[in-house]
Specification:
It contains two helices and eleven strands; from the N terminus they run H-E-H-E-E-E-E-E-E-E-E-E-E. The protein is globular and about 50 Å long. It has helices spanning 3-10, 25-28, and strands at residues 17-18, 45-47, 50-56, 59-72, 75-87, 100-111, 114-124, 129-140, 143-153, 158-162, 170-172. Strands 1, 2, 3, 4, 5, 6, 7, 8, 9, 10 and 11 form an eleven-stranded antiparallel β-sheet that branches.
Amino acid sequence: MTLLSCLLRAGAIVLPLALAGAAPAAAQTAELFTGFQTSSKDPIQIDAASLEISEEGKTRISEFSGNVIVIRGDTVLRAGKIRVFSPMGDNKPKGQAFSKIEATGNVEVKSGAQTVTGSKVTVDMGKQTITISGGVVLSQGSNVITGDRLVVDLATGKARVEQEAGKPIRGVFTPGSGGLAPPGQ
């Protein structure tokens, strides 16, 4: 089940939203972010015009800039600049290549027919969250949801779209374009 189809079925976009049915919690996360699952065994490929590496305490920070593309599994993240935070030495959680990714500058995350855009994306593996902010547009085909912020909880598979006070979250849904029919129809 896709993130957008779940949002469409929920009806009330403002409330926390379940992203899938009876699958285990880790598998419930939106297909859009499967590449960022801790269970993913896929390698992380990063292409960029430049790379600068620094260390702060027990964390290595790799800053990629210039038309950055990150590919992991079916998930593709594009941005002007991406900072990858990796624990050094004994601080590395088992099986994790990074603890956090921050992407800025016309950010786009795409997987299959789903795309989300915004001005900043933060993938925080410690908190098990992905936060997209700054003019968020979530689309699947002709179905679109817009807001100021989208927060995905990787542990529970729930997501919420947030908006500034007094501004509406906007959804445009095209009947017959997928994701609008109740389950089993």
